[in-house]
Specification:
By secondary structure, the protein is an alpha/beta fold. 41% of the residues lie in helices and 17% in strands. A hairpin with a 2-residue loop joins β1 and β2. The protein binds 4'-deoxy-4'-aminopyridoxal-5'-phosphate.
Amino acid sequence: MSLPNPEELVAWDHAYLWHPFTQMQEWLEQPPLIIERGDGPYLIDVHGRRYLDGVSSLWCNVHGHRHPKLDAALRDQLDRIAHTTLLGLAGSPSIVLAKRLVELLPPNLTRVFYSDAGATAVEIALKLAFQYWQLRGETRRTHFASLTEAYHGDTLGAVSVGYSEAFHRHYKPLLFDCHKINPPHVYRWERQVDPEAALGAAIGDAEELFELHGHEIAALIIEPLMQGAAGMWVQPVEYVRALREITRRHGVLLICDEVATGFGRTGTMFAIEQAKIEPDLMCVGKGITGGYLPLAATFASNEIFEAFLGPYAELKAFFHGHTYTGNALACAVANSNLDVFVEERVLANVVQRSRQLTERLARDFAPLPHVGDIRQVGLMAGIELVADRRSRRTYPSAERIGMKVILEARQHGVILRPLGNVLILMPPLCIRADELDRLCNVAAAAIKTVTGA
Ligand code: PMP
């Protein structure tokens, strides 16, 4: 088959694809931007145009596209085998990776359960937490708790503990109930209280919930330090620490969802390092393969692991597994991803570039009249655009202000993706100072053009 030309690709995309999180009626009105190649932090379309990948291909790219080490690891593994099952067999790349991951984790997390998406890593954590209490005989612990506006993925369990009215309202009857607690930002932003009072109120909220319902809750799930898809909402480390202490006091498991924050994004390998806590379960995905292949993992404490042990006939095993669990190609690239973190001193670059980003956000974005708030942890930043800064009046969602800004940035060679009215800046961790400057220049100019500031 000869390679289709760009016009054919547009026609076939419009004829055959259904894109995620996309109003297809709107999509079909415009030819899509079709990416053909990558080069470091750049994406190159079918016409040869280069774009800076300002959101790391949906928050997962780490060392850039077509990194020679990662490419070589993939080719090398291809020469052995692409995939074999972990059900009843083991495979070398997944064994080596599990050992290396555990060595990076707090000492209580000793087991790795692989899957292939952030959402599946979350489903697994929820099921492990639930079954753990059943096996331990605490059969009343059948509920979960999570943060207001949490996002943990799009499968039904993940939606139940997350929930966004816009995304998920049609599935409400399918979801299980989940207790919600308000993180500090809810108070700070909506009620306009100072950060310290907001922290106190949020901790008070958690205390109250666990006082009342702690005995029937299996686990609390959180995105530590930064709630990403909610619109980049930051929590102080004290909040994360307080939640660990409160859950422990009430015998509730703590699940940390580091699908977005994991693998260097916040300046440390994992966000929990900054809070200095040990969760009972932890979920990772996205950056685990440097953004190359679909792989995810759920880490479990030894205590949880041991509860599942027993003679076969007791049927205590964790009856869960996906066909591509522990895929050899993905695990081989993930091993190489960890090497590159060390060899290229990636975390040091994240710390430097994060400082640069903080300075640029304060200098070039904060003064803009329609920038209502700026929230950043490491190389994760959200810039909230508002119709009126003083009253914090938002733009109507029908105005698609975020979408207009990213389309303007695209004209200037930068790919972004907004979350509603929040512009996200989340470049690959390998980004250089001059590239980050360009990203900021284009994003600030696009905001000015679109908001008429
Ligand atoms: N958890 C968090 C914190 C996320 O940000 C995401 C995706 N943005 C997910 C889970 C779901 O991951 P996936 O899209 O790989 O299913």
